[in-house]
Amino acid sequence: MLSHFDLGIIESITEFAKGSRKSPKVGIVCAKGKFLFKRRAGRRADPERVRDAHLVQRRLIDAGFPVPRLIPTRGDGRTFLQLRDGLYELFEFAAGQPYHRTPDEARDAGATLALFHRALGEMAVDWRSMSGDYHDASGVRTGLCQIGSTLSAHDSFTGKDAELAPLVQVFLERYDAAAKEADTAGIDQLEPAIVHADWHPGNMMFRDGRVIAVIDYDSVRQSRRVADVANGALQFSMTGSGDPSDWPDHLDEARLIEFLIGYESVDSLTEIERRCVTPLMAESLIAECVPSIAESGIMGKWCGFRVMTAVRRRLHWLHTEGRKCIAIHWALGS
Questions:
Q1: Do residues 189 and 224 touch, judged by C-beta distance below 8 A?
Q2: Chunked in runs of 10, what are the mean pLDDT values of the chain (334 residues)?
Q3: Which residues, listed in sequence order, are joined to residue 27 by a DSSP beta bridge?
Q4: Could you tell me the domains of the chain?
């Protein structure tokens, strides 16, 4: 596969374990430098979808946005390779540091997201096949019902039968209430935009508190920019690691607010968007864990029941203390 790229002598190929196991990656050191080679997974390997994502990346590069350069194939100069029922991409390797959960990093991640939206604001697309987000999504509700009806016998839920149905019901009620709140706030009045749709720390590299590279455009689509903002605010304020039973109930308020401050240092949110942030964070929190648990009974390597129990606690915090924190920020900021 690598023979289709002009890399010169290859010195080493190393498995790159980060990210989804469904989309394997390797790091390459060769005569021409350091690169990341990736196989697209599932429906994200559709050639038309990949071409559209690459158009976005080229537009971002032209705007000076920190995007790793796509490496064209030898001869025809295409930015992806289709071979043996697989679709592959080669990128310039972005060297940097992972997210250290500092307020400065969260602020710059928010500002960088606003720059992403600004750079793509005038880009005309017709992506009806690549639209939508986690708001009021039937797939989330279907997944929750699947957890309750078909996974009760899964090992991760063994012995929790009596607790599972009420837990799933809480998720359904929280998701419905958050979706209704966003609808009431006027989310349907917002203009569609190109969004990253996976704005989280694992898709960024940092140096000295600043974002130096944004990667992974597999999920890019047409949606509403506030969906990116809410998900980013959630992801960059997460607390805890390891076993979900040990996760704190709360998000990090300082990083949450710094992310929003960073975004609005570049581009202000409308009043409708501000009203949508908290309910969309709740929807995103639920939508993130449901597909994996509905499919396999686990999330990552963790028991689905323990993950859902931890998320339930965070949903309660977000509905009470998180809502107050964000409301106070908007009041003081205005």
A1: no
A2: 93 85 89 94 85 92 95 91 91 92 98 97 75 92 87 74 88 97 97 94 95 93 96 97 91 97 97 98 96 88 90 96 95 77
A3: 14, 36
A4: 2-92 (3.30.200.20), 103-333 (3.90.1200.10)
